[in-house]
């Protein structure tokens, strides 16, 4: 039996009433979900600050930020100078960027300016696979393949060194640089390329002198974000760089980064509530400040040099 016109109008009104209630509820729901991420961030900062303050109740803040020796496990005279861990972290990041920048930017230029659609369909999925490999697998690759390969060229290279994990961290961040830089280059209007071609520029000149400068803010942002990830990388350096807090910029020596020290202590090398235990929060806070600063720098560069077409 077909419903009457009155019943159809009633159902239509009920349906509209339901949609109207959903429309009113959804903004509040979205606000709560967005607020959840802010609360989580605040919770992380509060946790780090609370435990870090307990650490500085036992260790001088001046010693922490100026000391050049990090020997927390010494029973008689432990040292808590953070600089050996900072130098190890930035040595790894510097080697990684030296590997990733030329390869990542070259791949981005090729994919943006030269690659056919068929080539993109082959190369881009391969880069996505590279980005999806677990970092512990990268660490094992550094330890069992890259280090023995480097030892055949560099005599006396120890099994744990900064060079091998630095190179592999660079390989790991190549997809990030390539993807973000390619997006920035692809956003450059075709009219700018056509104008350069009309003036007699070659394809390479258009890519280097027109597209790259026009996409500069996006490229710099991708590099800063990639370096931030290299600074925060954990498993590769914990596996292949060793655990020697050595304030040295020699890539052939074993070093320790901030993240690998946190892993070392978290694996049970310190009792709960000890100064060594609280030291991982002070190191974590230092790492947080560096990565937070890098993200702010990336945001500033993006806004400062952004081109509006």
From TrEMBL:
Subcellular location(s) per record: Cell membrane; Membrane
Membrane-related topology note: Multi-pass membrane protein
InterPro entries linked: MetI-like, MetI-like_sf, Phosphate_PstC
GO molecular function, one term: phosphate transmembrane transporter activity
PANTHER family (alphabetical): PHOSPHATE TRANSPORT SYSTEM PERMEASE, PHOSPHATE TRANSPORT SYSTEM PERMEASE PROTEIN
Source domain of life: Bacteria
Family of this protein: Belongs to the binding-protein-dependent transport system permease family. CysTW subfamily.
Keywords tagged on the record: Cell membrane, Membrane, Phosphate transport, Transmembrane, Transmembrane helix, Transport
Known function: Part of the binding-protein-dependent transport system for phosphate; probably responsible for the translocation of the substrate across the membrane.
Protein's GO biological process: phosphate ion transport
Gene Ontology CC: one annotated term: plasma membrane
A family per Pfam: BPD_transp_1
Protein's UniProt name: Phosphate transport system permease protein
Principal location class: membrane
Membrane-spanning parts: 80-105, 126-147, 153-174, 206-227, 276-297
